[in-house]
Design goal:
By secondary structure, the protein is mainly α. The protein has one domain: Glycosyltransferase (Alpha/alpha barrel). It has helices at residues 2-25, 53-69, 74-91, 115-131, 137-154, 174-191, 193-211, 234-237, 241-258, 261-278, 301-305, 315-332, 335-352, 384-400; strands spanning 39-40, 46-48, 51-52, 101-102, 108-110, 171-173, 212-213, 218-219, 222-224, 238-239, 290-291, 313-314, 363-364, 370-372. It has a 3-stranded antiparallel sheet. A 3-stranded antiparallel sheet has the order 12-13-14. The longest helix has 24 residues, at 2-25.
């Protein structure tokens, strides 16, 4: 088993360096206007020049992460600096918040409508500050200020700038807490454990004790503000297996750092729940969404906006599944998780990876045929996939060494 793990670590390191990042390195740096271009068709032709700020933050994070964890490649650090400058000069709204959408030149098209912009810029800033030794005083101050604002807004039930979610007086949303947990964890080495503990504890509690419901063996995307399941509505019954698995590897990461066996055990249990509801036993891969009642699933929010069917196979969810199974095995050495990982590895290798032009397709039909061949869209950049693969490499290299 140890030799197989070593081979997978080498495979995914090579996959990052030779199959994924060359696609982005060759075309995402906007030398003309600053920042990153992130929307490309299958073979890399530019399809949209707007600057989606959550993606500017994500791309900054990706280049900084690669520099910090895969290879001290000066080109990656330079590309990170390139994105950092654009964000500071063009995207910062000046009120501890970040704009959502700019045009190519940096003119604001949509202002501070999305806490997800804040999450991902903070995540990018923190990873970049780590890469540069926290040497940029202006960047550190903006990071502190932005983090403070997110913390305040996460505890404010009336805060409504949560696109691509819709604020509700009834529900709170799982994806806000999972993304916030990931953001706060990235900030720990930069801002310190004392500064990040309050938000991390809140996110863990909501994820593991509110959205995760033992009586259903499911993680609900929305629960009521008094911690109840609403089975009377589509939003209340909506289950997102990709978010379940993404959320759980974040919890595993935190549990490992804290050496908290209770968090780790809970997350490992929920990964099995996610596999049971999300793994397509007929075709392989991970489905997009499900209904907790067993009824025909109906789309909400992002899935509605992108015209996603419940049995579509979406790149980000399948990448997160791959990462979650790998990390579950690495922390438990339970062969059940390794079997999950190998099935998911074979599916992604055979169906998502574009061996002709590089990178992964955005979306597949249930049977594995390509539905959306684009490599970058208003929803896809070099983030979910690269982050997942980096964590797989690190988890498996730690075992094999």
């Amino acid at each position: 088993m140890k030799e197989k793990v070593k081979e997978y670590a080498a495979y995914y390191r090579k996959h990052i360096l030779e199959d994924i990042m060359p696609f982005w390195d060759a075309r995402c740096i906007d030398d003309e206007c600053g920042g990153y271009l992130t929307c490309f068709d299958r073979d890399g032709r530019l399809t949209d020049t707007n600057k989606y700020i959550w993606f500017q933050g994500r791309q900054l994070y990706t280049y900084s992460l690669l520099y910090n964890r895969i290879e001290k490649r000066e080109t990656w650090l330079k590309y990170a600096e390139h994105g950092y400058k654009f964000l500071i000069e063009k995207a910062y709204a000046g009120n501890r918040r970040w704009n959502y959408l700019l045009d190519r030149k940096g003119n604001v098209l949509v202002g501070t409508t999305s806490i997800f912009s804040d999450y991902h810029v903070i995540q990018g800033l923190a990873e970049y500050m780590l890469a540069t030794g926290k040497s940029d005083k202006e960047g550190m101050q903006i990071l502190y200020d932005s983090y403070d604002a997110v913390e305040r807004n996460m505890f404010d039930p009336e805060f409504k700038d949560i696109y691509e979610n819709t604020w509700s007086p009834v529900y709170i949303w799982h994806d806000m807490y999972l993304t916030c947990l990931s953001m706060a964890e990235v900030c720990v080495p930069v801002l310190g454990e004392a500064r990040t503990k309050k938000l991390i504890d809140e996110c863990l509690d909501k994820i593991l004790n509110w959205f995760a419901k033992d009586e259903y063996k499911l993680v609900f995307e929305g629960v009521t503000r008094d911690n109840k399941v609403d089975m009377s509505s589509v939003k209340g019954r909506f289950i997102n297996p990709g978010h379940m698995l993404e959320s759980m590897w974040f919890c595993l990461d935190t549990g490992k750092r804290l050496n908290d066996k209770k968090i780790i055990s809970r997350a490992l249990e929920i990964i099995k729940w996610a596999y049971d509801i999300g793994h397509d036993k007929e075709y392989g891969g991970l489905i997009s969404y499900a209904d907790a009642s067993g009824a025909e699933p109906e789309p909400i929010d992002w899935y509605l906006e992108t015209n996603s069917l419940w049995d579509d196979k979406v790149w980000w969810a399948n990448a997160e599944a791959l990462c979650s199974y790998a990390m579950a095995y690495a922390i438990s050495l339970d062969p059940v998780y390794f079997e999950m990982f190998e099935k998911q590895h074979e599916y992604c290798r055979d169906h998502f990876f574009d061996s002709q032009y590089g990178e992964w397709y955005e979306r597949l039909h249930r049977d594995g045929k390509v539905k959306v061949a684009d490599k970058g869209t208003p929803w896809k950049c070099a983030f979910h996939l690269v982050r997942a693969l980096v964590n797989i490499v690190q988890a498996f290299e730690a075992i094999s060494s």
